[in-house]
Specification:
The protein is about 40% helix and about 20% strand. It is of the alpha+beta class. It folds into 2 domains: about 80 residues, Arc Repressor Mutant, subunit A, CATH 1.10.10; about 180 residues, Beta-Lactamase (2-Layer Sandwich), CATH 3.30.450.40. Helix 2 packs across helix 3 and helix 6 crosses helix 8. The longest helix is centred in the last third of the chain and has 20 residues.
């Protein structure tokens, strides 16, 4: 049984410019942005209505994007979805090293060490996004869609991305965040969030115990590409029964070890 993480996914499209120099490109980007806001997929009719273009025109755009590997169409439902190609194009690199390529072996080692699903994420605006995942072999395990975005206040990786920004950036981000409640443990007070960020900085890792989803615990550590410059975050997620709070320090040692190994590979 897979337990899918609850993380908000929202469209990020800016208002259209008053003058469009390349209308076909604009419509193609509109298709990608609409699908990004609906990770479960959309029918051709829904897509046509959403971007305000005729079905025939949208169908041709979808065919082109499918041929280029950016979208796919499920045969059973005919729903159109994004593939992971855009994420792969936008992956951070350090010199000639791809972040994901360097991360896979340390992530697998971490999965084997703690027995739980391991994920990798990067900051994107005022959120984070999952770019890789190594699933646990447990029958009941945590999983999430690659490309899923997550908030910064209610989960371990988000807290790490928030806390390890430069001090002024962290404070500015906290001021702008809307601290929506998801469970009884979600931090919804900005003063409490500041204290939590200080704790994350002091410990070198972040935790959450059912703050985004009841019954799901996470431990996360930062990945730096150079001193004081946060590149990514790596974390392990599990159902609460297999990762109680008492186990957090031990899991944190393994997660931080994986983060340091990833940094070593990036700099090699």
């Amino acid at each position: 049984m897979e337990h899918v993480l609850h993380m908000e996914h929202r469209p990020t499209r800016d208002p259209a410019a008053s003058r469009i120099e390349a209308p076909a490109l604009d419509r193609g980007l509109a298709v990608l942005e609409a699908l990004d806001a609906r990770p479960e997929g959309m029918s051709l009719s829904e897509l046509s209505r959403t971007i305000g273009s005729p079905k025939n025109s949208v169908s041709r755009l979808v065919q082109t994007l499918t041929a280029r590997g950016y979208v796919e169409r499920e045969e059973a439902t005919m729903l159109i979805r994004l593939t992971g190609k855009l994420l792969r194009l936008g992956q951070p690199r350090v010199g000639q090293h791809s972040l994901v390529e360097c991360a896979l072996e340390p992530m697998r080692a971490l999965r084997d060490a703690v027995g739980e699903t391991v994920q990798l994420g990067i900051p994107i605006g005022a959120e984070g996004v999952i770019i890789e995942q190594v699933e646990s072999t447990q029958a009941v395990r945590i999983c999430a869609e690659i490309g899923l975005r997550f908030l910064l206040h209610n989960n371990a990786p988000g807290k790490v991305l928030l806390a390890f920004q430069p001090a002024k950036g962290c404070e500015l981000a906290i001021r702008r965040l809307k601290l929506k409640r998801f469970t009884s443990r979600t931090i919804t007070d900005k003063g409490a969030l500041r204290k939590e960020c200080e704790r994350v900085m002091r410990l070198g890792y972040g935790t959450d115990w059912g703050e985004a989803d009841e019954g799901i615990h996470c431990v996360a550590a930062p990945v730096f590409d150079r001193p004081d410059h946060l590149l990514a975050v790596v974390w392990a997620s599990a159902v609460a029964g297999r990762m109680p709070k008492s186990r957090f320090p031990k899991v944190a040692v393994a997660v931080m070890k994986a983060a340091r190994e990833l940094e070593r590979r990036l700099r090699a």
